[in-house]
Amino acid sequence: MAFKKSAVPFAGTPEQEKKLRAVIEEHKSDPGALMPILQKAQDIYGYLPIEVQTMIADAMEIPLEKVYGVVTFYAQFSINPKGKYKISVCLGTACYVKGSGDIYNKLQEKLGIGGGEITSDGKFSLDACRCIGACGLAPVLTVNEDVYGRLTVDDVDKILEKYN
Amino acid sequence: MVNIKINGVDYSVPDGSTILEAARIAGIKIPTLCYLKDINAIGACRICVVEVKGARTLVAACVYPVNEGIEIFTNTPKVIESRKTTLELIVSNHKKECLSCRRSGNCELQALCKEYGIDENKFAGANPEVEIDDSAAHMIRDNSKCILCRRCVAACGVTQGIGVIGANERGFATQIASPFDMTLAETACVSCGQCIIACPTGALTEKDDTDKLLEAIADPTKTVVVQPAPAVRASLGEAFGYPIGTNVEGKMYAALRRLGFDKVFDTNFSADLTIMEEAHEFLDRVQNGGVLPMITSCSPGWVRYCENYFPEFIPNLSTCKSPQQMFGAVVKTYYAEKIGKKPEDVISVSVMPCTAKKFEKIRKDQSAAGVFDVDITITTRELARLIEKAGIMFCDLPDEKPDSPLGTYTGAGAIFGATGGVMEAALRTAVWKLSGENNDAPIDFKEVRGVEGIKEATYTVGDKTVKVAVASGLANAKALLKKVKAGEANYDFIEIMACPGGCVNGGGQIIQPASVRNFTDIRAERAKVIYSIDANCALRRSHENPDIQTLYKEYFGEPNSHKAHEVLHTSYKAAELYR
Questions:
Q1: Measured between CB atoms, does B167 come within 8 Å of chain A?
Q2: Looking at B55, B75, B95, which one is the last position of a domain?
Q3: Of B131, B180, B482, which to mutate for an interface test with A (greatest number of A Cβ within 10 Å)?
């Protein structure tokens, strides 16, 4: 078992904490309060690290596992921040049959991280996404706003180099 | 009452019954996997499906309430086929090592697969590699055998109010684990083992120390002595076909002797010793303005919970070691000296209804003679396995007695294994003392008996009034402590046991399947054993135990003496863990 703590240290500010505490106070007594609180917490911090989840659990007097279970159930929540360069590989049907799975695997191997994770220098984060509407260019990946299409596994190194 | 029809036969059943309960009244056992009465009615596993006339689909009997005129069919081909397919899908992703699995023969999944004659290879599952979590002192989790029924999650979160395990991720990736995939040892788990006895398969098991024990017994240089806890004799027989609630005390002693222990003693003895110390500690706190309410410290799951969740109550905890540890401490000091052996050459073994005892024995400040008070702790289940492995024909054994001097006990020691038992035992001696050592003082304190989660009573002795409370199950303990903390309730003395019903329902006891647990109160049945032992004892107050009197005369002097404090008392520390 590996403790899934984010590779990047937590850098929350007192202002962010103040905002979060206000959100919890506002929703605390609502039924099903956890979802809106988590959504707003992610708006405040950009992601939901253990430090934020612990604050929510303690303030709501519920076990941390209850928070974590919900966070990992929904794809909209992330326990890792996004990198300076956010890589998204399309695993939609067209891209997938054209080999985007291999590209995704190659990126994981090159960066040493899994999907949904971030490199320890905070530079790259990697996610899989579904169709981005560029099936004609399949297989496709994006780095922030840049789109790369008609890729092969061998293109991965060249793309990463551009951001180094 | 409502009138219903099951398989074409008319029945009248109570309003609000589920189909599962109604069928049971009709003598039909509908199979279940995820359902556990009171704590896990989630209708998730779909094994209990039945046909209801007019319903669009099969319905889950565990959560479907009956209504007037409902017609239910429990064994149509459609029902049987559905259950069979569900089982085949579950086992497709289940690690099938039934020949070597700890739970083989006592596995709810295995039993159902046999009943339904499934094809275990019908579907090829993904069977992903999973990491085994053996970080905790008391248990192992192997998710490759987990069927995601969530009974452990309910035992931890609902029964115990702890919730350090839950379902992470979703779909095929779903795993029962702790937040951020931390190991159990990194969480505020209290080692109570309620998750283990809730598990239908071999996914959760206690750590096995029987090999270590056999090695110790085989070593001719060691004197190996054993103490079985009060609650063990109330459950051990279940492993050998006896009905729940059978007292197998005599056969238990006989089996331990045949396993090769040099001396067969009894934790009931050190339960009496605990009362000597604890009752006097209580009287001292009352008379000299000590911290009240005093809270018992016999249950290591509770002690750990207090340290993890309510550290502000640490000064309220009795400083007395638990009976297991007091016994070990006496073995390593008084007894070792008496037989002229070094403490490390006397191996002190305990048989416990409890998994937290495996954690307790390695705590700090539990080593009176400079070595651990207790060397090896096994659960009731491990003892049953050992008896089987050794070929001891348990049912044919004669009833034997424990050895002297650490095997003699009174009725007060015997009742430690049930919720309210420690309180009653302490009251017997405290009230006797407060009433001027009057032998006609009351012995039975029935208000604190029974399986209710929280009990309260007030006793008046002379001009003194003693307010007591008893809680079992940590969710109940939490509710009680919150009231005390808020000043809404006021007590002098509180007994808390981590497991609901007390040690008789401990996490180390013989596992009863949900089909039994859902319809029989095993806590009450096993507690009856303990109270009948008490009723049949000639001596029923701890201080009347002649071997306890000798122990004080020869070794400790007085209860709470300096020497008694060194050997029989301990300390606690707040723990900072993820909750």
A1: yes
A2: B75
A3: B180
How confident is the model over A3-19, as pLDDT tens digits?
777 778 899 999 999 99
Strand partners, B494: B295, B469
d(C-alpha B453, C-alpha B501), whole Å: 7
We report the CATH number of the domain holding residue B507 as 3.40.50.1780
Chain centroid, CA B518 distance in Å: 17
Check: CB of residue B157 under 8 Å from CB of residue A57: no
Q: Which of B75, B96, B125 is the last residue of a domain?
A: B75
As for how many domains chain B has, the answer is 2
Low-confidence ranges of chain B (pLDDT < 50): none
Q: Does the residue B139 lie in any domain?
A: no
Of B135, B162, B181, Cβ closest to residue A63: B162
Condensed to tens digits (0 to 9), the pLDDT of residues B334-362 reads 999 999 999 999 999 999 999 999 999 99
Residue of A nearest to B178 (CA): A65
Residue B432 domain flag: yes
Q: Over the stretch A58-89, which tens digit does the pLDDT of each residue have?
A: 999 999 999 999 999 998 899 999 999 999 99
User: The domain containing residue B29 runs over which residues?
Assistant: 2-75
Task: For residue B187, give how far its alpha carbon lies from the nearest alpha carbon of chain A (Å).
Answer: 10
- Tell the residue number behind the tokens 């959560």, with chain if given: B63
Are the C-beta atoms of B200 and B110 separated by less than 8 Å?
A: no
Residue B173 within any structural domain of the chain = no
DSSP string, B215-280: HHHH-TT-EEEEEE-TTGGGTGGGGGTPPTT---HHHHHHHHHHHT-SEE--HHHHHHHHHHHHHH
CB atoms within 10 A of CB B579: 19
51-90 in chain A: CB under 8 A from chain B? 53-54, 57-58, 62-69, 72-74, 79
B228–chain A nearest CA distance, Å: 35
Q: DSSP code of B47?
A: T
A4 contacts B578? CB cut-off 8 A: no
Same domain? B347 vs B492: yes
